[in-house]
Specification:
By secondary structure, this protein is of the alpha/beta class. Helix content is about 40%, strand content about 20%. Helix 16 (about 450-455) links the parallel strand 20 (about 440) and strand 21 (about 460-465). Mean pLDDT is about 80; it is low at about 30-35, about 110-150 and about 790-805.
C-alpha cells in the first residue's frame, strides 16, 4: 500500500519548489514483493531519501515541482494521491493529468504564463493559436495538456455562447455533449455549433463552467470571445487576520474589482451568479461561493450560516491551527500575523518543531519519536495551549510527559492526576527519569495540609478520587502544568472527576491516553473542555446532516491538538504481535443451561415489552440477561451451578499446559473477579505458582505483585482483572496474553495485550481469545469488527473504539 498526501496550499508552495508531502507505505512481509505498479515510485523515494535501505512506513518530504511531477508520472492513473485535508478521497485523474495537481507542476508554463491581474480575459490569441493550454483551473498558469486532435471551441460574448464540440471519437465528446444539452444549448445544423442565446443564462454558465472548460475539456477560446469578455472577471476569495487580545479577528470575503459589498450581497441573496458595476461584470462561481460558505460556517461554528460577501469573526488562539489550513486552501495569498504562524505552522508540519531543551542525560534515553513528542508538548505549553498525547500503548507517554515537566521551567508546581493504581508507577518513573524534581504523592494519609504546602514541591502526584475529595485545596492553587493520565476517567463531562479537573488553574493542560475515544465523539468534546476550555462548543440538539457537520468539525478542530503514533510506525524493531481466536465448545450440560437461560430471558423481555415497560427497564433486563449468558460461557459455577463443568476451562487447561511446557510466561485477563478466584483454585490444585491483581488491592500490594512477576521467573502466570490490570502496567516479562472472556470494546482488550507488547519486549507476543462457539461471545466478536470505525475516523490508529451499545445491539447479541 502506498499513499501520497499533498498539502492543501499546493498552489502557494509549488512556485517556491517547497512542497511538503507525506508518504505512507506498507510493504508486505518477506518474502512477498510490493505491487509492481509502485516500484518506479519506490525507486524515486529511495533516491530522494538516500541510503541503501527501503523507505520507512511514513515519510515527510519537501519536494520540488519537478520531483513531484516525476512521482505523479510514476504513479500515473493509480488512485494513490489525496489532499491532506481530505484523506478519505483519492484525487481523480483526467487522462494523464492529476486533477488540480498536474497544472501546478508545469515549471515552464508557470514561468512564462501569468494570470491577468484583473482576473478577466487575456489578449486575443492569433488566429489558429490556442493559448488556453498554458493555463490551468480558474486561469492559473500551467493548465492540463489538451487531448490530441480537434477540441472543443468556445466563441461568444456576455450575450451568447457558441460551442463547437470535439469529434465523436474524442475522449471528451460524450461529457461535452451532456454539458451543452443539460444547460439549455440548442444545436444549429447549418454550422454544427451549439448555441445559448440568453444573457442571464450565458453569464450563469460562464460563472459555473468557465474554469472547467479549460480544466476538464481542454477547450480553445476564440480571439473574438477573449476580446469581447475582457471586462468579465471572476470574484476572488480573500482572507485576512489581525491579533485581538488573546485571539484573532479573521475576515473572509470576496474581492471583486468595481463591485461594492452591497452589489455582491444583492446578487448572492437573489441567487444571481454575477454582479455588475462600472461597466465590469463579476462572476460569482458556485465553487468559490461554496468554499467561502464552508470557511465562514467553520469560523462561525454554524452550519446554517448564510454566505456573506465579507464576514469578520473573532476566534480563539487555539483555532489558529485549524483556520490556517482552511484559509491557506481558500485564499493562497493569505498572510497571517507572526504569532498566528508561530502557533499553527509547527502543528501542521511537525518536522519543523523546535527541539525541547531536554537535559542531555535524559535526551540520550529518548527515541526519535519521543523527542518529537516532547517538542510537540513543549510547543503547545509555550503558546499557552493544551493537547492530548495519544500514542499507542507502550510507546512511553509517561516518559515524554516527565521530559516536558523538566523543560517547562515553571515557578508553580506541576500536578499529575492518575488512577490510584498508577501512583506508584508515576513515582518510580519520576525518580528514574527526572530525579531533579521534588516529588510528593498526595494520597491516603500522606496528603498536603493546605495550598501553602504545594509551593515546596515541583511535582505533585494524586489520584482522581483524592482530587475530588481535596478539590478545594487544588482549585485555589496556581499550577504550572496539569497532566491527566488515563484520560478515560473524564470522558463523562458531568462526572466529579471531569468537574474537578476543569476547575484547576494551570498554564498548560495535557492528557495522556491510548484511547481518546471509547464510546462516541462526545468523549472527545469532554476531553477538550479540560485541555482547551471554550475551544469546542457543544452542538445544539441537532440530528442528521447538521449533526454530521458538527462531528466533522470536531475532528478538524481536534486534529492539531492530538498526537498519535503507532508501534508499527515508530517502533519497527518491536517484535510482532499475533492474535488468535481459540474456539471452545460448550459441554452438553453447559449448552443445556445456556439454552434454558436464553429462552427464559427472551420470554422475560417479551413480557416486559408487552406490559409497557420503559426502554430503560428493557435495556437493564437485556444487560442482565447478557451478563448471565456470558458467565455461563465462562463457567456455569458463576451462576450457582456448583457441579457443572466448563468447555472453556478445559480449553484453558490445554493451552496453559502447552504454553508452560514451552517456557512461555502468561498474562490471563478476565472481567469477572469471581472467575479469577476459580482460576486461582485451579492453579493451586495444579501447584502452579501465580501472581494475582484485581481492583480491590491497595497500590502497595498491587506493585508488589507486579515486581514479583517482572523480577523473577518463579511465577509463570499472572491473573489480572481487565479493569485493574488493563492499563498503566509494564509486564514485558510475559510473551503470551489470554483473554478468557471477550467484551464489546476491542480497545480495552488491546490495551490489556499492550501490557506485554510494548517497548522493552524482545519476544513475539501471542494474544489468545477464548470464544465459546455459537454463543453470545461469537456475536460479540462480530460486533467488535463492526464498531472499529470511530477512532479510525479521527486518527490513523490500528486500534479502535466501540460505539455505545444500543438496545438494538443488545437484542441482536441475545438472539439465537
Amino acid at each position: 500500500m502506498l499513499r501520497v498526501y499533498l498539502p492543501p496550499n499546493l498552489a502557494a508552495t509549488a512556485p517556491k519548489d517547497a512542497i511538503a508531502v507525506r508518504v505512507d507505505l506498507e510493504l508486505p512481509p518477506s518474502p512477498g514483493l510490493p505491487d509492481t505498479d509502485i516500484l518506479p515510485a519506490l525507486a524515486l523515494l529511495q533516491k530522494w531519501i538516500g541510503g541503501g535501505g527501503a523507505p520507512g512506513p511514513r515519510l515527510f518530504l519537501q519536494l520540488t515541482r519537478a520531483q513531484l511531477s516525476a512521482l505523479v508520472a510514476a504513479l500515473r492513473g493509480q488512485p494513490r494521491f489525496s489532499w491532506a485535508n481530505a484523506t478519505d478521497r483519492s484525487i481523480p485523474w483526467s487522462g494523464a493529468e492529476l486533477a488540480g495537481v498536474s497544472p501546478l507542476l508545469q515549471v515552464s508554463a508557470a514561468l512564462t504564463a501569468a494570470p491577468n491581474p484583473s482576473g478577466g480575459g487575456r489578449p486575443p490569441a492569433p488566429e489558429g493559436e490556442n493559448r488556453s493550454a498554458a493555463r490551468g483551473p480558474a486561469g492559473r498558469p500551467g493548465g492540463p495538456s489538451p487531448a490530441p486532435g480537434p477540441r472543443m471551441v468556445v466563441d461568444g460574448s456576455e450575450h451568447f455562447l457558441a460551442i463547437t464540440l470535439p469529434p465523436r471519437e474524442h475522449p471528451t465528446y460524450a461529457r461535452a455533449l451532456d454539458l451543452v444539452k443539460t444547460h439549455g444549448f440548442l444545436p444549429e445544423p447549418s454550422n454544427g455549433k451549439w448555441w445559448l442565446r440568453d444573457r442571464h443564462k450565458t453569464l450563469g454558465f460562464l460563472a459555473e463552467f468557465r474554469p472547467r472548460l479549460e480544466r476538464d475539456f481542454g477547450a480553445a477560446f476564440t480571439p473574438g470571445f477573449l476580446q469581447r469578455t475582457a471586462h468579465i472577471a471572476p470574484a476572488q476569495v480573500e482572507a485576512a487576520a489581525a491579533e485581538s487580545g488573546d485571539g484573532y479577528e479573521v475576515t473572509v470575503g470576496l474581492r471583486a474589482d468595481g463591485a461594492s459589498e452591497a452589489d455582491l450581497r444583492t446578487a448572492i441573496l437573489t441567487g444571481r451568479s454575477y454582479a455588475e458595476a462600472g461597466g465590469r461584470i463579476i462572476l460569482l462561481g458556485p465553487e468559490a461561493l461554496a468554499r467561502l460558505a464552508r470557511a465562514q460556517q467553520a469560523l462561525s461554528g454554524d452550519p446554517a450560516a448564510p454566505v456573506a460577501p465579507r464576514q469578520t469573526r473573532r476566534i480563539p488562539a487555539a483555532q489558529a491551527a485549524e483556520a490556517d489550513e482552511l484559509l491557506a486552501e481558500l485564499a493562497p495569498g493569505f498572510q497571517p500575523p507572526e504569532t498566528w504562524k508561530a502557533r499553527s505552522a509547527a502543528l501542521r508540519t511537525l518536522t519543523s518543531l523546535q527541539p525541547a531543551p531536554v537535559p542531555a542525560e535524559l535526551d540520550a534515553l529518548l527515541r526519535p519519536y519521543q523527542r518529537l513528542g516532547v517538542a510537540w508538548l513543549w510547543h503547545l505549553y509555550r503558546h499557552d495551549l493544551g493537547g492530548i498525547l495519544a500514542d499507542e500503548m507502550g510507546l512511553g507517554k509517561t516518559l515524554q510527559a516527565l521530559a516536558l515537566l523538566l523543560v517547562a521551567d515553571a515557578k508553580e508546581p506541576a500536578l499529575v492526576v492518575c488512577p490510584a493504581s498508577l501512583l506508584e508507577n508515576w513515582r518510580r518513573e519520576a525518580a528514574r527519569f527526572a530525579p531533579a524534581l521534588r516529588v510528593f504523592v498526595h494520597h491516603g494519609e500522606g496528603r498536603l495540609a493546605g495550598p501553602e504546602a504545594l509551593g515546596g514541591q515541583d511535582l505533585i502526584i494524586t489520584s482522581y478520587g483524592t482530587l475530588v475529595r481535596d478539590e478545594a485545596l487544588f482549585r485555589g492553587a496556581a499550577l504550572g502544568c496539569v497532566i491527566a493520565d488515563e484520560a478515560q476517567h473524564l470522558k463523562n463531562r458531568r462526572s466529579q472527576n471531569a468537574r474537578a479537573l476543569r476547575g484547576l488553574r494551570a498554564r498548560g493542560r495535557f492528557l495522556l491516553t491510548g484511547t481518546p475515544l471509547e464510546n462516541s465523539l462526545e468523549d472527545l468534546r469532554s476531553l477538550f473542555e479540560f485541555i482547551l476550555p471554550g475551544y469546542i462548543a457543544a452542538p445544539p440538539g441537532v440530528r442528521g446532516a447538521d449533526r454530521a457537520w458538527f462531528d466533522d468539525r470536531l475532528k478538524a478542530q481536534a486534529a492539531p491538538y492530538i498526537l498519535r503514533r503507532t508501534k508499527a510506525a515508530v517502533a519497527p524493531e518491536l517484535p510482532p504481535r499475533i492474535e488468535q481466536v481459540v474456539w471452545c465448545e460448550l459441554t452438553p450440560r453447559q449448552a443445556a443451561l445456556y439454552r434454558q437461560t436464553q429462552e427464559a430471558g427472551e420470554r422475560a423481555l417479551f413480557d416486559l415489552e408487552a406490559g409497557g415497560a420503559s426502554e430503560s427497564q428493557v435495556r437493564f433486563a437485556a444487560l442482565t440477561q447478557l451478563l448471565r449468558l456470558r458467565q455461563i460461557c465462562c463457567d456455569p459455577r458463576l451462576v450457582q451451578e456448583a457441579d457443572a463443568d466448563s468447555g472453556k476451562l478445559e480449553a484453558l487447561r490445554e493451552l496453559l499446559a502447552e504454553s508452560l511446557d514451552d517456557g512461555h510466561r502468561i498474562l490471563l485477563f478476565s472481567q469477572f473477579t469471581t472467575l479469577l478466584g476459580l482460576l486461582r483454585e485451579e492453579l493451586g490444585a495444579q501447584a502452579i505458582p501465580h501472581c494475582y491483581l484485581d481492583g480491590s488491592m491497595a497500590p502497595a500490594a498491587r506493585q508488589e505483585q507486579v515486581d514479583r512477576f517482572q523480577g523473577s521467573d518463579e511465577c509463570p502466570i499472572f491473573l489480572l482483572s481487565l479493569k485493574a490490570g488493563g492499563t498503566g502496567l509494564n509486564l514485558t516479562a510475559a510473551d503470551t496474553v489470554v483473554h478468557y472472556d471477550p467484551w464489546w470494546n476491542p480497545a480495552a482488550e488491546l490495551q490489556a495485550t499492550d501490557r506485554a507488547h510494548r517497548i522493552g519486549q524482545t519476544r513475539t507476543v501471542t494474544s489468545y481469545k477464548l470464544i465459546a462457539a455459537g454463543t453470545v461471545e461469537e456475536r460479540v466478536l462480530g460486533l467488535q469488527a463492526e464498531k472499529r470505525a470511530l477512532l479510525e475516523a479521527v486518527f490513523d490508529a490500528s486500534d479502535a473504539a466501540a460505539a455505545r451499545l444500543s438496545l438494538a445491539d443488545l437484542r441482536s447479541l441475545l438472539k439465537g
